[in-house]
Design goal:
Order of helices and strands: HHHHHHHHHHH
Radius of gyration: 19 Å
Keywords: Membrane, Transmembrane, Transmembrane helix
Number of domains: 2
InterPro entries: UstE-like
Number of strands: 0
Shape: globular
Pfam families: DUF1295
């Protein structure tokens, strides 16, 4: 077990160190968001090699790599030619001392630790889990999450590419039922992987991993920061918030203007 944990921690750290070097050379740290998905993929592949290619290990590795590479590719393509992410620019503008090393600690090292911790269900599933009927629950949850995330991202990309959508709010498709189908999808993916870890009793010990991921998405760095930004830049966003579920998909409420 020690070998597994050390190996996967080294894999996560290696990916984030490469991202850090690129960020320092380019002067933009937004690339860490690409490294986020690739870090999970690296941890999963490393764990599979260390644990010896079990059937469930192959499954959780494939699901994690598919999710991580898709997310990294989507973020990388979306951010091509764009300026620095405002979140990181604001964070580094308040850095005490050397901003480079502050970025390493507060952006890269922190995200590397989160990658390792959130991926604990994957690691324990690779080590201990064996197939049973419970596997169906994990795979279905993963499929639901992956569909929400992929379709939601595609709908948002199409909306942003239209000149008529500038300054407007996307409130159709999956975005009609939740303000964050991509974040909801992320959460479902990781609850699905947790369910696969629970094919063995040790998987239940990793309950904090999907809880932490969901908390960051819904309460910390995902939904709150994005909604604060959109409330300042989209005139119709408060009305959208009033009628649309914040996280879990749900039929929209009547807005004030419809009454």
């Amino acid at each position: 077990m020690i070998t597994l944990f050390l190996g996967t921690a080294a894999a996560a750290l290696a990916v984030l160190l490469v991202a850090f070097v690129i960020g320092v050379r380019t002067g933009k740290h937004k690339g860490v968001d690409v490294a986020w998905g690739l870090g999970f993929a690296a941890v999963a592949v490393t764990g599979l090699v260390i644990t010896g290619f079990t059937p469930v290990g192959w499954l959780v590795t494939a699901l994690t790599v598919i999710w991580g590479v898709r997310l990294a590719t989507h973020i990388g393509l979306r951010g091509r030619g764009a300026p620095e992410d405002p979140r990181y620019a604001e964070l580094l503008s308040q850095a005490p001392g050397n901003p480079t090393w502050y970025a390493f600690r507060m952006i890269y090292l922190l995200q590397g630790a989160l990658v390792w911790f959130v991926s604990l269900p994957v690691q324990l599933a690779q080590k201990y889990a064996s197939p049973s009927w419970w596997l169906i629950i994990g795979v279905v949850l993963w499929l639901v999450g992956f569909a929400f995330e992929t379709i939601g991202d595609a709908q948002l990309a199409r909306f942003r590419s239209s000149p008529s959508s500038k300054g407007q709010v996307l409130d159709s498709g999956l975005w009609r039922y939740t303000r964050h189908p991509n974040y909801f999808g992320d959460a479902c993916v990781w609850w699905g992987l947790f369910a696969l870890a629970c094919l063995h009793w040790t998987g239940w010990l990793t309950l904090l991993s999907p809880l932490v991921m969901t908390w960051f998405l819904a309460r910390k760095t995902g939904k709150p920061l994005l909604e604060t930004h959109l409330a300042r830049t989209r005139p119709g966003y408060p009305d959208y918030v009033a009628r649309t579920s914040g996280f879990f998909p749900w039929p929209p409420r009547r807005s004030v203007s419809d009454r």
